[in-house]
Amino acid sequence: MTKTIMLSVFVFFITLAQAQKVEFTEYDLDNGLHVILHQDNTAPVVITSVMYNVGGKDGPRDRTGFAHFFEHLLFEGSENIGRGEFMKIIPANGGTFNANTSQDRTYYYEIFPSNKLELGLWLESERMLHPVIDEQGVETQNEVVKEEKRQSYDRPYGKFLEVVGENLFTVHPYKDTNIGEMEHLDAATLEEFNAYFNKYYGPNNAVLIVAGDIDKEETMKMVKAYFGEVKPRPEVIRDFPEEEPITSTKRVKAYDANIQIPAIIAAYRLPGQATRDAFVLDMISTYLSGGKSSVLYKKLVDEQKMALQAQAVNLGQVDYNIFALLALPLGDVSLDTLLEEIDEEILKMQTELISERDYQKLLNQFESRFVSSNSSVAGIASSLATYYLLYEDVDLINTQLELYRSITREEIRDVAKKYLSPNQRVEIEYLPKKEDN
Fold first, then answer.
1. Any idea which fold 250-431 has?
2. What secondary structure letter does DSSP report for 103?
3. Per-residue pLDDT tens for 138-154?
4. Which of these, 12, 122, 160, 273, has the minimum number of CB atoms within 10 Å of its CB?
5. Does the domain at residues 23-227 carry the CATH identifier 3.30.830.10?
6. Predicted TM-score of the model (pTM)
7. What would the pLDDT profile of 324-375 be if each residue is shown by its tens digit?
């Protein structure tokens, strides 16, 4: 047995030993709030988190960015928490907190010493039950969001996803940037903000996760005490328009004053993240650019020295995934040349099986990623919420690794052939400044 094979076998069995099954209990309150509990008494830490089924894709298209805005706004305070006190109470009690928003969901969480569990539940119930949404809070957070946009979006390649979204989608709301248009937020009225909260922030449009050093029976009593009185809202009905399949190559140009080096992007609109093909495409993107030994980086950056960067991204979303190939040229290398070199590797995947060695490397990478995602109480809580709300299968926290292991080299070849042809994509020349007429 070679040293390489021995090492792979060793890593495989170590990973298996570490990948302990995550036990959880789930149930619904009468108001429709879904609750998932995970008990792990190995450390005196607990996380309380709520994921709401609302993201950048939701709401009127002349009021984009509301979901992200509420991520900030709902830290302002409530009828029982003074303005600005939310973010003081948590660290004063030994805790940390954060929130984030995607096109599909908004996630809030606090991590506390386990003797502060009741405090965490109270804070999240206050956010859901009666937050203060007023002019002062809106004005304050409007400036916060604008500053975040300047720092995160108005920087080199910060508009990558915005450029891809607006060119890959024509009718689905994924075409709009998640952070939203600042003029939409400026024009919004207080009544519109309150209406948005009332529509999307009901208990029956959310999942509560409590994970860590808990007693399940006592936790269930506290959850009912703090969240049971929240009244349900009408069911959120979504009827987004479907995109027509891309059947011929679309070539466009996009300009960004914040970049100096151009880029070529080949973007594909693919089935949503819960489909089996999406998991296969995860493996394909990792094969192409999962580290410095990956196919594209090794070829274009290390060996041929044609690119400063080369990457494949499979961005998981509920309705449509985005699969994007990206490269930045080195020197005078043309964007078309980079794309041709990338396509050469895609064609190999479509006509040949990847090597057994590369396949085992992929499995090792996904096993390591799987173990890492479940190595902390915060990671477990996030996974439980995500798998319930976005995949409709909480047990993926235990079965996802087996799913990846079941994907064969033949399936990788067939999925690459099915989705990654030039006539199924948008090719974007991402350029530093608009050309003179």
1. Cytochrome Bc1 Complex; Chain A, domain 1 (3.30.830)
2. S
3. 999 999 998 998 888 88
4. 12
5. yes
6. 0.92
7. 999 999 999 999 999 999 999 999 999 999 999 999 999 999 999 999 988 9
